[in-house]
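Quick log. Single chain, no ligands specified.
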Amino acid sequence: MSKLRKSARVWNLTKQFVCERKFRNRVWDAIAFHVRGAEAEEAKLPKEALADHSWLKGKRIYFVGGCELIYIKDALAALGAEIHHTFEQQGGTDALSETSNPDSPLWRYKPDCLVLSQTQLFRGLVEETQRKGPLVSRARQDGALDGIIENVAGALRDIRKVSAQPVFLITYPLAYRPVFGVHESRSIQKGYCLAELTRLYELKLYELAKRFPDVYPLDVGLALENRGKQGQIEESGADGVYESLTRAGALLVAERFLYQLAVLQPGLKRIKCAVFDLDGTLWAGVLREDGPGGIAVRESSLKILEHLAARGILLALCSKNDEAELSRLPEILGESLWKKLSVKKLNWQPKSQNLKAIASELNLGLDSLALFDNEPFERAEVQANAPEVLVLTERDILSSLTSREFEPYGSLTVEAASRTEKYADERIRAESLRESQGSLEDFLHKCELRLTLQRPAEGEISRVHEVLERTNQLNAALRRSTAADLRTYFARPDKFEIEAARLQDKFGDYGLIGVAVAEKQGAQWRLLELAFSCRALGRQVERALLNHLSRRALAGGATGVAIDFVPTERNGQMLKILSELGFSQVKITENGNLSLVRKLDEKGSDLSFPSWFDVIGAPAPGKTAPH
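-> predicted structure:
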């Protein structure tokens, strides 16, 4: 490019920078992005190294595998986990050998989770491919792979006969050193080259995990991808087959495992609503000064908002702006994202005040909210006056996708993915109620409410678990039963009763919004879990489900239903509901819980349902509903 052309280009860019606000905002944003990136790189630390691992202390983990797991075991043991490693205890180093042994400590150990490694078996196939590559047939490799996978499948079947605890299948740690060169796929025509073989093995482990409940891949490649394999795979003695993780590499895999395991833990802080500032956060520039044409929207950040909504996280706006600017936002943000926003607060009030209003409007606790804001002053104000809120910067929007607090509960349910739409339906209901002329009861009769009360299907266990985990205000027992516990209850209908409430009306489908789990103790059934989504409030779904369960108890010969109510600052409404339904206090337990009992009498107990429900699946008093 000639000097004249360069000068002309510089002049044009300078003119554009001076005259066009949007271009100027985009340039400043790019500069700030690179500066922030350099600062972040300097301060970069492993995320899990900063995490609270107190929940891990005392967890019992059963490792099935060889020496490849030693350093991972050491890293977890240092954080307080109790670990049995079959290799160190002279047990099986492949899954089926261990589970086929009736004397295996596994059957007495009662682990909280298991980690299965097939590295010792897969190494044989890797060695054969590395040594005899062009001579090994695909049929031979497929047969060997199927045998290894069936070995794990057999072990999983054995484990699931006695345990519903999470199981993790670790992939093969290997630095890619192909014997037949970088273009080995051209040299090996009859079978799979090393790259194909290892990827196929990983895919088969992923497919296998989907066949069993609560089985998850522990992908070594994903654990190492941010740092790369340099220094993470042992080079001393490496030969392209018998390789192992260094202590540094094992620590990264342990951190990945902890992240996956933590997401499954009850009581972990969960973000239910992500709240976003506008100026400087979702775009560069100031809307009221630059106008819609002058701001530079950060399209990548808007995509992250869509991703969070797909996880079932509600979205809200909280910006110091004129309320009149709301009319411009559908065009700026896009109609699709605009419709997913549950609450929009544009005003000049303190943001802590707006966040409290958002929590109240959505019927959530403040500790369920996260605020993304670029201004240090605004973040400090919220931290001072609403300390329960998780406060983040605009730079954290992308990393939210890999932050534990924003993870879905195990498997993402269909209902969770449609949560934003359900809250949109709720806004329409609220508007209809405000516009109605009659009483609340008259309004409910017009809503065409269809309530289904029945035992959930086995495939709905994930949703049941999610309701128990997410609810705080309408949660009576707060046991936080794990998915494994729920599967145990589900498998024993002779001992446990599980009932769920589903609700629909003319505005939309609420989904599964209530759960009751009772242990049948002869003349008295004891509620282990009782929880409802906040969207059930005001419709008396709680009364209907408890009356349904009481009918089941009566039909089963019980004369009472009991519960140990765990009082908190937020579930007082649940205690009021129980009292109104005849649950009276018997005593206060040693740990401060309230022991409540509802006495049942087929003639004297009012077990009716609210008249505005069209109830499906519930029996008349004295009769048993078909399960």
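The chain has four domains: 1-44, 50-263, 268-406, 414-616.
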